[in-house]
Amino acid sequence: MKKTSKENPVTFFRKADEARQKVVKRSLKKAQNGIQVNATSTNPALDYDKQMLAKQQAENMKMRSKEIEAKRKLEDQTKMTNKFKTDALNEMYPNYQIGQNKKGGSVKRKK
């Protein structure tokens, strides 16, 4: 009897299915990260890295703008609070900010 190197059909389909699942999982991961589907470059790994870098930079810019906006709001609130405090003090003590009028000039110390 002649030996054949035929692969069992079940094994063949199992291997093919595993290969398809591997490709699908990789594609899903890229799709979840927002990669463009039709990459024009010959090296898709570089495109993926560039897109991920661009996405990360965009997220960083959004976070920075939110932080800057929060700081501005806090500064505005502080300014308004200080203004109201100053107005209240002016009403209670009309001349509290006016200091003594001193004449200018340097004072020399005797030795």
Please tell me about this protein's structure:
The protein has helices spanning 9-32, 44-92. By secondary structure, the chain is mostly helical. The chain has one domain. It is rod-shaped. The model has no long low-confidence stretch (mean pLDDT 77).
Unreliable spans: none
* Shape summary: rod-shaped
What is the C-alpha radius of gyration, as a whole number of Å?
A: 37 Å
Tell me roughly what share of residues is in helical segments.
Answer: 55-70%
Count of folded domains: 1
Structural class from helices and strands? mainly alpha
List keywords for this structure.
mainly alpha, 111 residues, 2 helices, 66% helix
Question: Can I get a quick summary?
Answer:
The protein is mostly helical. The chain has one domain (10-92). The chain has helices at residues 9-32, 44-92.
Blueprint of the fold:
Blueprint: H1 9-32, H2 44-92
